[in-house]
Amino acid sequence: MDPNQTQFNVGVIQPVDCLQEGWALIKERYWLFFGITAVGILIGAAFAIILMGPMMCGIYFCLFRRMRGETVRFEELFRGFDYFGQSVIAMLIQTIPIVVVIVPLYLVMMFGMFASMGSLNNGGDSPAAGLFAANMVMTFALLVLMMVLVNLIIGVLFMFVFPLIVDRKLSGVEALQTSLKAVWANLGSVFLLILINVVLAGVGMLLCYVGALLVLPITFAAQAVAYRKVFPEIRAV
Fold it and tell me: Across residues 35-51, what is the average pLDDT?
């Protein structure tokens, strides 16, 4: 791996500035990037482990073209498939922590549900039914909370993975390793940027999910700006 491909800057991310610069980057072609990000996420979500990686690469491919002042067309979203193998490897590795955390919690929830149902069948009294319902609600809330936390942590630590695959042509494993190093060196500012994006998405979801889709292009653009600050473009001599 070429050292020039993995060198990065520290202390250069200002989250609010990244959001402003991200909006400035796409505002003249907002609806184009809205279509690119919305379609990319919807296709990726249909077969998350297989297609989400290529779609993420396609979104960043378009954003990097925009940064260079090049013309961006909607169909270039599918240039993400040029990085299919490495993006799928990266996505599979990122899925491991989710499986390790969520599957045991799900099994505990199912075990608790069947145990409570057994108690109901034996006793059948209303206090037991109330306790069963309360346990189910608490367990489900814990499962959702843990899923959100795990996804937030993964989103922070691996924020640069797909941009690195596209921009630096790294393998999936190399991109994961490099992203971890760069994020750890810029942890506070990266976390704050992701947190702001999560809050914006949460507010958007209150508008029947429409708002979340509307802020999606700005979220990706802000993260692309943050990436470029940490990993400056390597220009051919």
Answer: 91
